Amino acid sequence: MTVHQLSNYTSTPATCSSYARHYLTKNGQGHHDSQAITNSVAMTKHDEATKDITTAQLSSYKDEFDSDIKNKLATLTISRESYTNALENREVFLEHPPVFSNKLAIDAPITNQMSSGRCWIFAGLNMLRQKMMKEYNLDSLELSQPYLFFYDKLEKSNWFLENILATLDDELDGRVVQYLLKDPIGDGGQWDMFVALIEKYGVVPKEAYPETYHTSNSGQMDGLVTSRLREYAKILRNEHAQGKCAGELRAHKRHMLEEVHRIMAISLGHPPEKLTWAFYDKDKKFHEFKDITPQQFYKDHVKQDCTNTVSLINDPRNDFMKKYTVDLLGNVVGADKVHYINLPVEDIKRYAAAAIKAGRPVWFGCDVGKCHSRNKGMMDPELIDYQTAFNFGASTTKAERLQYGESLMTHAMVLTGVHVDGDQVIRWRIENSWGKDYGNSGYLTMTDKWFDEFVYQIVLEKDDLPKEVLAVLDQDAVVLPPWDPMGALAK
Asked: Which residues does the Swiss-Prot or TrEMBL record annotate as the active site (predicted)?
């Protein structure tokens, strides 16, 4: 999720403790809100139920509101303050201090994606640097997110144009074509898209390709490229209607991509073809590796095979122990398709905790804006007490929130710690990419309850998984439609 967009995701009555259906059930309040609405409807006379809002109706609402003195106190308090601050549940912070029984040995410097949606790239590179920092005895290391960002924009443009060529005979106002036109080169992505980029283009250290204005503030550049791509789509469809052959259209596509490349090169500069990596380690010893390509840097220094990973999702709408993919989801034409194995959340948590205990970070995707305190770096379903203030809380399940458009993956981060009491996971430590002034010096505490409700995807090495789970990869994938929430891009 883009840092400057966080205010748009401030928890609302529909996004916090109201979602903790099974936690409300523990307190004897399960289905309280839906039942209250049902009872209210039953008490309303049929002749009082109208299509429009009447004056009598408004008067009734006001009288009902004024009859409860608690509403006046709530108004005096909440009307002057954000919900997050006014209704903050202090007990959550007392119960979950930022202390963890298992934590990665290395705390790498916190990164900052600024006003862009590159979290998935940041999270991926932050995960890869852990092993490098240990091997080279480094205090700090940052790999270049702008380098992958450059090629992601170019590849997404090609992906879009290829899909336009594949849908030339589809109706322009049909759902598929309109879906393609909606956001052709947005900043967001998923793990398999990250893998596709580094396998093709490699990796470079940040000093070899640093930030520019348009990597840190991507909105204008994204808008310009998007505008051009929509124009290209119009040209290709019109030329197809005029009877031009596929070869002519693809030749035009080549020139279109050249223009996109020009925009990227002007805005970001040319990515390096070769580089020198020079640094001092913790012992002040000098190291230098000269004249290496980004692909060599990835192979010889990063030394991690990202193709040997598996994306696990928790999608309770669909069958577990099945393989899934999303139609039209990707960035690099010719790369492996995006695939997931759908598992129960308890299994996903068990595998993630085991990886952390073994000293490995875990890339994951979640709905970051839900039940989240930005200032204090806390995520918990009961963080903001809407029930006390407003007398209601939604009773939707995780599956229902996906079905009704209330939740999906919005952001990717890295799990770097877990706190376990006996056999029970209590909370998780998260490395974010919103700068060190955010949360607890750039880190978050996520309770295990929040994981249940709002974590949708994690990435593990194949060695972290049992044979019966890996066997799911041999299945034919269930293909979800392009607009399915499992195809949401982390930003």
From this structure: 119, 411, 432
Residue 31 lies inside a defined structural domain of this protein = no
Q: Hey, is 64 helix, strand or coil?
A: helix
293-302: per-residue pLDDT in tens? 999 999 999 9
- What are the residue numbers of the active site? 119, 411, 432
Assign residue 151 the CATH number of its domain. 3.90.70.10
Residue 43 pLDDT level (bands cut at 50, 70, 90): low
Domain coverage including residue 467: 93-107+305-487
Are 176 and 82 found together in one domain? no
Two tokens, residue 90: 């202090």
Q: Are residues 362 and 344 in the same domain?
A: yes
Residues 6+ apart with CB under 8 A from 226: 183, 184, 185
274 and 176 in a common domain: yes
Tens of pLDDT, residue by residue over 361-404, are 999 999 999 999 988 999 999 999 999 899 887 789 999 999 99
Average pLDDT over residues 200-226: 98
The amino acid at residue 363 is W
Instruction: Give the type of residue at 287.
Output: H
**Whether 458 contacts 190, CB under 8 Å:** no
